[in-house]
């Protein structure tokens, strides 16, 4: 019978929770869960733990707070774990911690490496208009997502997927893949293979990446909207500088041609012109207001006929 492993787990967001839960429900022991400290949330700025911490506490697992693993290096080395597992923790693992666990560290990455190395692979895949992505479990090295691969799984991208919906599915699928890799590492029945192909990169997005430019095609705008939803969020800027968040939109299949950025009501549709065909706005959030129907927003917009998105 294969002896269970002693694990370290590092992760913070919701996408890391399925893997933590899969490992906690398996034969192995989680010696420590490393996650980011609680942060102020909401209007009342209440200190709120990460989703990973909430899950770990529910399962009685020991939690350590850190924004990177370096401050905990000595403590983690002293735990003499067999394997470290990282999912969406952020930052690189350096020596001597990198080689401290007997089997090293593995990482769940949400792309088919070497494509989309970096912090935002799901978002960049959507923005690029990909129809397929996937996940990779690899042996961690000091390089950025450069390690040898233990497992990969392709995953289709739906026409209406957002970064949020796609990441949720990948996180669930990835949990079972990680659990299988850990079991096979414990049994000594798996070997990693080098990544093949030319790498591409997916750096963290900032607010500016969510700006929609209506001089582009409708499909390009739709891809950016889906890739930046829910974070950092997509938005358009009217000709007077007013920012309008775009929460949902679809590509119009008919309607009179509109100049890029021009606004129009077509029955019960709120349309905006692009480089080719109209984009139908479904849900928007004007500056300083709650999310609302784009139809209601456009109906209430003064001088609608002369207004446009810049």
UniProtKB/TrEMBL annotation:
Function statement: Attaches a formyl group to the free amino group of methionyl-tRNA(fMet). The formyl group appears to play a dual role in the initiator identity of N-formylmethionyl-tRNA by promoting its recognition by IF2 and preventing the misappropriation of this tRNA by the elongation apparatus.
HAMAP family linked: Formyl_trans
NCBIfam families: fmt
Gene expressing this chain: fmt
Family the UniProt entry places it in: Belongs to the Fmt family.
Residues that coordinate or bind (6S)-5,6,7,8-tetrahydrofolate: 111-114
EC number(s) given by UniProt: 2.1.2.9
Gene3D superfamilies to which the protein is assigned, alphabetical: 3.40.50.12230
PANTHER family: METHIONYL-TRNA FORMYLTRANSFERASE, METHIONYL-TRNA FORMYLTRANSFERASE, MITOCHONDRIAL
Catalytic reactions of this protein: L-methionyl-tRNA(fMet) + (6R)-10-formyltetrahydrofolate = N-formyl-L-methionyl-tRNA(fMet) + (6S)-5,6,7,8-tetrahydrofolate + H(+)
Keywords: Protein biosynthesis, Transferase
Domain called Formyl transferase N-terminal: residue spans: 11-181
Single GO cellular component term: cytosol
A GO molecular function held by the record: methionyl-tRNA formyltransferase activity
Domain Formyl transferase C-terminal residue range list: 204-301
Root EC class: transferase
Stated name of the protein: Methionyl-tRNA formyltransferase
């Amino acid at each position: 019978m294969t002896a269970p492993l002693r694990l370290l787990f590092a992760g913070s967001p919701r996408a890391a929770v399925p893997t933590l839960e899969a490992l906690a429900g398996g034969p192995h022991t989680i010696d420590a869960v490393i996650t980011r400290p609680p942060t102020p949330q909401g209007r009342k700025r209440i200190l709120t733990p990460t989703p990973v911490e909430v899950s770990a506490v529910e399962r009685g697992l020991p939690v350590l707070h850190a924004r990177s693993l370096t401050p905990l290096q000595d403590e983690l080395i002293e735990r003499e774990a067999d394997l470290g597992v990282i999912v969406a923790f952020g930052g690189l693992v350096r020596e001597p911690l990198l080689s401290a666990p007997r089997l090293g560290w593995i990482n769940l990455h949400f792309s088919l490496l070497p494509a989309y190395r970096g912090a935002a692979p799901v978002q960049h895949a959507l923005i690029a208009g990909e129809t397929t992505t996937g996940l990779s479990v690899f042996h961690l090295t000091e390089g950025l997502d450069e390690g040898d691969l233990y497992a990969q799984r392709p995953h289709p991208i739906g026409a209406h997927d957002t970064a949020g919906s796609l990441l949720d599915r990948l996180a669930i699928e990835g949990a079972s893949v990680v659990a299988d890799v850990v079991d096979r590492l414990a049994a000594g029945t798996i070997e990693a293979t080098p990544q093949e192909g030319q790498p591409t990169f997916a750096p963290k997005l900032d607010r500016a990446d969510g700006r929609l430019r209506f001089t582009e095609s409708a499909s390009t705008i739709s891809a950016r909207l889906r890739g930046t939803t829910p974070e950092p969020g997509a938005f358009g800027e009217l000709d007077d500088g007013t920012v309008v968040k775009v929460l949902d939109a679809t590509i119009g299949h008919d309607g009179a041609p509109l100049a890029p950025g021009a606004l129009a009501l077509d029955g019960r549709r709120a349309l905006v012109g692009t480089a080719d065909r109209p984009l139908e706005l479904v849900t928007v959030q004007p500056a300083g207001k709650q999310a609302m129907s784009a139809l209601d927003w456009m109906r209430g917009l003064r001088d609608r006929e002369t207004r446009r998105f810049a």
